[in-house]
């Protein structure tokens, strides 16, 4: 059942259906609504040092100043200075900041969506403590309200808001889950009325990596845990978050929240999906309007806790020299750095870290919805080369990650560059190396 949206339908129309004036008015008013004291402080604090440029893989790959992260919010900074800053009347009177025109705003779509993964590396390195990625996310909200979200992201967000999944499928995802269980001979717990843990799954895994879904079910079964998937809250991704549709993001998150509450879950377990973790762990409670009545955990931190408690025992994994891709949204926004390394150490994995790893890791290049934007592909491939070189420089034979979008991005790189690495799932590796007797739930 779809939720009724509280947003005016005109504000959600694609760009083609909006007049230039309406686009500008929508974006500027949307950004004005987003601006609070903290965001205003961030906008005023920038000293134009350029350090964020040196942190951004888009700038590193191109050396083009337009890809400087803080520059990506410039039209909205102009609007703030003209309309909401302390000296706004003086700014308008003296013409210190020009009014943003429709043509400028349409051109900026490329900078806010095509050339930003929302990875947060720029925020981490800013000497003034400005959360540049948060400002870009706010600017995306305004662009969405103006009808200027990329078509691919808008359509997936609309479909997910209405149906619970980003795209139509031949069979409902719940039926595909059952088929995955049969294929891999593992029980898929579905729609239990009560469970301690509610599971969700990336639609990327359902469509591209069904063994990852089976691996999650197998590990939970081995641990003897009370858990369930819920038909009305299956998909971990949140395309409202990607497209900048804040109300749609809220409604998509509420599907999962409502289902977790319905089955009285103590934990909502986020699978290998970086942005789903950020959207549910850090933003869902704010959009919900009160504290969530359950914990939100990423699967690797959950399994690391089980490992520390002695309930999860693992055998030696024959991976050879291995490197690990830290998902941006998990490691930089969630601090999930040590958990995957604990799991790898327990399996005797020979880990060769990239030059930039952990909190300083470069994005795979596909995050923030960029992988779904067709026109962004040439720039994305150019930008990805920084990451691919770092992986190759480790000399590792095996590439592990705990994010399905990273995995899909690297698969795409393998095809495009004829690259010789096949990304593997850390969760799948855990499931393949379980030891000890499975416990009864």
What is this entry, summarized?
The chain is α/β, with parallel strands linked by helices.
Structure notes:
This protein is α/β, with parallel strands linked by helices and 441 residues long. Helix content is 51%, strand content 6%. The chain has 22 helices and eight strands. The strands form two sheets. Strands 2-1-3-4 form a four-stranded parallel beta sheet. Helix 21 (404-417) links the parallel strand 7 and strand 8. Helix 1 crosses helix 5 (74-83), helix 7 packs across helix 9 and helix 13 (210-223) packs across helix 22. It is globular and about 75 Å long. The two termini are 32 Å apart. The model is unreliable at 1-13 (pLDDT under 50).
Q: What topology does this entry show?
A:
Elements: H1 20-34, H2 37-45, H3 51-55, H4 57-62, H5 74-83, H6 88-94, H7 102-114, H8 121-125, H9 132-145, H10 151-163, H11 173-184, E1 197-199, H12 203-208, H13 210-223, E2 227-229, H14 239-243, H15 246-262, E3 267-270, H16 274-288, E4 295-298, H17 299-308, E5 321-325, H18 328-331, H19 338-346, E6 350-351, H20 377-393, E7 398-401, H21 404-417, E8 423-425, H22 426-432
Parallel strand pairs: 1-2, 1-3, 3-4, 5-6, 5-7, 7-8
Keywords:
globular; alpha/beta; 441 residues; 22 helices; 4-stranded parallel beta sheet
């Amino acid at each position: 059942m779809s939720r009724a949206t509280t947003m005016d339908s005109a504000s959600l129309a694609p760009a083609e259906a909006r007049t230039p004036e309406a686009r500008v008015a929508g974006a500027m008013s949307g950004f004005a609504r987003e601006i609070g004291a903290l965001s205003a402080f961030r906008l005023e604090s920038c000293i134009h040092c350029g350090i964020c440029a040196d942190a951004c893989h888009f700038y590193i790959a191109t050396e083009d100043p337009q890809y400087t992260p803080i520059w990506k919010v410039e039209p909205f900074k102009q609007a703030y200075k003209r309309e909401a800053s302390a000296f706004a009347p003086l700014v308008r009177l003296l013409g210190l900041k020009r009014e943003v025109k429709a043509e400028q705003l349409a051109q900026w779509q490329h900078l806010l969506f095509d050339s930003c993964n929302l990875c947060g590396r720029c925020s981490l390195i800013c000497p003034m403590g400005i959360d540049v990625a948060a400002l870009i996310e706010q600017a995306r909200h305004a662009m969405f309200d103006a009808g200027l979200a990329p078509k691919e992201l808008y359509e997936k967000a609309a479909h997910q808001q209405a149906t619970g999944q980003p795209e139509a499928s031949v069979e409902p995802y719940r039926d595909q889950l059952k088929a995955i269980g049969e294929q891999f001979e593992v029980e898929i717990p579905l729609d239990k009325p009560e469970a301690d843990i509610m599971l969700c799954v990336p639609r990327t895994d359902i469509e591209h990596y069904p063994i990852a879904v089976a691996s999650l079910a197998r590990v939970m079964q081995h641990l003897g845990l009370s858990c369930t998937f819920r038909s009305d809250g299956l998909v971990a991704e949140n395309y409202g978050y990607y497209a900048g549709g804040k109300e749609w993001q809220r409604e998509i998150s509420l599907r999962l929240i409502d289902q977790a509450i319905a089955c009285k879950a103590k934990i909502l377990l986020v699978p290998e999906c970086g942005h789903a973790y950020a959207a549910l762990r850090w933003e869902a409670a704010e959009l919900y309007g009160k504290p969530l009545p359950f914990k939100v955990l990423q699967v690797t931190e959950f399994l690391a806790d089980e490992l520390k408690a002695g309930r999860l025992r693992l055998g030696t994994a024959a991976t050879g020299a291995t490197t690990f891709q830290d998902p941006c949204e998990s490691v930089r926004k969630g601090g999930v750095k040590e958990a995957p390394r604990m799991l790898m150490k327990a399996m005797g994995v020979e880990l060769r870290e990239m030059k930039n790893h952990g909190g300083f890791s470069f994005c795979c290049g596909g995050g923030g919805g960029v992988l779904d934007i067709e026109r962004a592909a040439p720039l994305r491939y150019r930008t990805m080369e920084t990451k691919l070189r770092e992986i190759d420089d480790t000399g590792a034979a095996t590439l592990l990650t705990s994010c399905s979008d990273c995995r899909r991005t690297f698969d795409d790189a393998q095809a495009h560059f004829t690259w010789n690495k096949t990304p593997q799932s850390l969760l799948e590796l855990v499931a393949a190396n379980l030891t000890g007797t499975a416990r009864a739930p």
